[in-house]
Amino acid sequence: MWAVRAILLATLPGLLLTVPPALARGEAPPAAVAPEIAAAELPAEARQTIALIRKGGPFPYERDGFVFGNLEKRLPVQARGYYREYTVRTPGAGNRGARRIVAGKGGELYYTDDHYQSFRRIREP
User: Among the options 27, 41, 115, 124, which is catalytic?
Assistant: First the structure.
């Protein structure tokens, strides 16, 4: 027990020096900046979903337009309700699949093909 305490006390100063200043002040870590993808590079189904989002629907899936919570903070942090999610049809899938577009109130769009594990910001012409 004393040996563990001695090791912790010896390494603690070094650990404190490695904490980013924002975290040391108790601030939330910034969201990672999503890499970009051109809309033209997306699957045809994603481009169809974008067209539906831009014209306000109608949407084919019941959960389209629901609030996306961004709980893992993979997108820039915004107030709850800022982001909405939309399903991108996956041919051959027996369910909604893993592909989504998340739309921000500012008009920005993000694409994920791995069910929110990663995002790419969609660059439109």
Answer: 115
**Is residue 115 annotated as part of the catalytic site, yes or no?**
yes
Instruction: Tell if the pTM clears 0.85, that is, is over it.
Output: no
Q: How many CB atoms lie under 10 A from the CB of residue 51?
A: 9
Q: Can you tell me the distance from the alpha carbon of 113 to that of 111, in angstroms, rounded to the nearest whole number?
A: 7
Q: Give the fold, CATH level 3, of 28-123.
A: Nuclear Transport Factor 2; Chain: A, (3.10.450)
* Cβ atoms of residues 36 and 121 within 8 Å: yes
| Per annotation, catalytic residue among 41, 85, 108, 124 | 85
pLDDT tens digits along 87-125? 999 998 889 999 999 999 999 999 999 999 999 999 998
What are the structural domain ranges in the chain? Answer: 28-123
Q: Are the CB atoms for 121 and 37 separated by under 8 Å?
A: yes
Q: Catalytic residue at 72? A: no
Q: Where are the alpha helices (DSSP H) in the chain?
A: 2-17, 21-24, 44-55
